[in-house]
Design brief:
single chain; alpha+beta; Structural Genomics Hypothetical 15.5 Kd Protein In mrcA-pckA Intergenic Region, Chain A; Pseudouridine synthase; four-stranded antiparallel sheet; 9 helices; 16 strands
Length: 318
């Protein structure tokens, strides 16, 4: 392949046809062995060097023979609709297929109406272009603006598809550190309560019988003498505002969360203690565990607590 073509494509995904693949259509083998979606197959078919068998361009309706060398080349793309913007990034992991960053609180992940700059996407696109990389911004999941911690971004469509499927299957383990008022009913347990939109505020979520099934697991990390608790939380589902809604539901709203707060805590001594210490909900995505979308190797990533939560811990312990 020419040097120009090499910069146009990622390193090819390579597999050798097995005896069980013999006589099968190429598209069936790609879907069965690599889990390639129909949408990505259509895109690969329209790409000049997208799919090759034994060094020649191949069609997906061809039959495969045992021993054939199958290569998939994914074209590099850029996010032309996202304005590159220099900003400091905390990179936790990066290779040719994905990027994991530790997002600060107060930052939106992707541009939205009225927020075209200052987002994590703006910074990442600039970071890639400065390094000479052609990548399209594919966020695998998102965090609330005021939640800090780990965010996974795929660099190409195949990595995004594979990671999204892991998310849908529930095999991505996401753990959070939360600081709450009071203590939950047990030192460890689960909150299994459906979540839906509030009838009064379309942006607000509430526990309601007709909501979507929602499951949150928690363990107590530390009980503070002032009456607050640090929790390690694992999501069983991924609903909007899930942790904030479920913690409020069990009487332990997140410290600093004015949107999902409980009246009985607003004038409490604990509320006065933390006033001015933290300006957002005390929630941090601290650990992620998933399979690498291309190699299949397990990845276990962590992001230490940001300064505002370390300061909060100190105040709660005092």
């Amino acid at each position: 392949m020419s040097s120009e073509a090499e910069t146009r494509y990622y390193e090819p995904l390579v597999l050798t046809a097995e005896a069980s693949d013999d006589g099968r259509l190429l598209r069936e083998v790609l879907q069965r062995r690599l889990g390639i979606s129909r949408r990505l197959l259509v895109k690969l078919k329209s790409t000049e060097e997208g799919i090759a068998v034994n060094g020649r361009r191949a069609r997906t309706n061809e039959k495969v023979a045992a021993g054939d060398r199958i290569e998939i080349r994914i074209e590099r793309e850029q996010s032309e609709d996202i304005l590159p913007e220099p900003m400091e990034l905390s990179v936790v992991f990066e290779d040719d297929h994905l990027l994991v960053v530790n997002k600060p609180a107060g930052q939106i992940v992707h541009p939205t109406t009225g927020h075209y700059t200052g987002t994590l996407a703006n910074g990442i696109v600039h970071y890639w272009r400065e390094r000479g990389e052609r990548c399209r911004f594919h966020p695998v999941h998102r965090l609330d603006e005021h939640t800090s911690g780990l965010v996974v971004v795929a660099k190409h469509a195949y990595a995004h598809q594979q990671l999204s499927e892991q998310m849908a299957e529930g095999t991505v383990e996401k753990r959070y550190r939360a600081y709450v008022y009071g203590s939950p009913p047990a030192t460890a347990g689960e909150v299994n309560a459906p979540i839906g939109r509030s009838g009064d505020d379309p942006h607000r979520r509430v526990v309601r019988e007709d909501g979507a099934p929602s499951l949150t697991f928690y363990e107590t990390s530390e009980v503070f003498p002032c009456g607050a608790t640090a929790l390690d939380i694992r999501l069983g589902t991924g609903r909007t505002h899930q942790i904030r809604v479920h913690m409020l539901h069990v009487g332990c709203p997140l410290i600093g969360d004015d949107y999902y707060s409980a009246n009985e805590w607003r004038s409490s001594a604990l509320s006065r203690l933390v006033e001015g210490v933290i300006a957002r909900q005390a929630l941090h995505a601290i650990r992620l565990t998933f399979r690498h979308p291309v190699t299949g190797e397990p990845l276990r990533l962590a992001a230490g607590l940001p300064e505002d939560l370390r300061i909060l811990e100190g105040v709660l312990r005092s």
